Amino acid sequence: MLATRRIIDIIFVALAIVAACITAIVAAKAVTDAFKPTLDSGNSIQESSKLVITDPDANL
Hints:
This protein is mainly α. The chain is 77% helix and 0% strand. The chain has a domain at 1-33. The chain contains two helices and no strands. The radius of gyration is 27 Å and the shape is rod-shaped.
């Protein structure tokens, strides 16, 4: 009986850990989605400052 109770406790703790991990993943996804416009605006600044090198012999 004691061994069965211990197994049930271990399973319960494992399920609690899995639930905590899922909650952390969902929270991280929500925070990432909330700040996505801020992150995208940083990329547009970087893209607009790219150096374009053209071949000088292309016009010959």
